[in-house]
Amino acid sequence: MKGIVLAGGSGTRLHPLTHAVSKQILPVYNKPMVYYPLSVLMLGGIREILVISTPCQLDLFRVLLGDGSQLGMSIEYAEQRAANGIAEAFVIGAEFIGDEPVALVLGDNIFHGPGFSRILHREAVSIDGCVLFGYPVKDPERYGVGTMDERGRLIHLEEKPAEPTSNLAITGLYLYDNDVVDIAKNIRPSERGELEITDVNRVYLERGKARLISLGRGFAWLDTGTHDSLLQAGQYVQLLEQRQGVRIACLEEIAFRMGFIDAAACYELGEQLRHTDYGKYLMDITAENR
């Protein structure tokens, strides 16, 4: 399975912070925001990733992430010249995707919960259609919403409904089989001229090939699109890391745990940052295994 991180948009809700820098480069506590969605794909075992952003921001991501080889991965880059909708990522990334299934994650979404890697692995290896992830929220009218029947089957999808029939917001993580490329190329743009991801998901729903997994108790899904939510996300990460003594979305550690790189390579990455707590953490977790 290939992976896409969509890190476009102008981040207007975060102005003036994002006048000169991509929203997904901003810090969430002690790491750039893009580390968090990227870590989700890595936890799913995905090693080939395309980062899509605006033309003026792509070089920032290239400097930050490089070609991915230091993490035992391959990271490529592509432009989204205008905010033409989430589903345009599959049109832009068609050549990168090739004939494989693909996972898409939004660059400002943070996921954290027990067994998440296991869930992603299970779904990725047997994908037939699309798999969506729902999260219960207090204000579902702000999101795309999925409704399930009494047997847990997805039966309805709505985009920002005035009267939601469910409180399950569709999160910014999507798994698709290879049909998604042709579906995205053939859906009609919305009135705003965007290729809406909900329209893609509805095609799968009509085919009987859309599933919704509810991320319930024990999981956290954070959207960092406003000043308040960005601050809250940083506080959440800070609290967990300081209480538990582990790092959330530490790309080097995940690459090591997933077998993308060995202990010696991870230690060396930590040594390059040895004057920081982040670097010392990497050196500590790999010191005995070098």
From TrEMBL:
GO terms for biological process: hexose metabolic process; polysaccharide biosynthetic process. The keyword Plastid does not apply. It is an enzyme of class 2 (transferase). GO terms for molecular function: glucose-1-phosphate thymidylyltransferase activity; metal ion binding. It catalyses: dTTP + alpha-D-glucose 1-phosphate + H(+) = dTDP-alpha-D-glucose + diphosphate. It holds the Pfam family NTP_transferase. Keywords: Magnesium, Metal-binding, Nucleotidyltransferase, Transferase. Its cofactor is Mg(2+). It comes from the Bacteria. Its EC number is 2.7.7.24. Residues 2-236 form the Nucleotidyl transferase domain. Belongs to the glucose-1-phosphate thymidylyltransferase family. Catalyzes the formation of dTDP-glucose, from dTTP and glucose 1-phosphate, as well as its pyrophosphorolysis. This is Glucose-1-phosphate thymidylyltransferase. It comes from Streptomyces violaceusniger. The gene is rfbA_1.
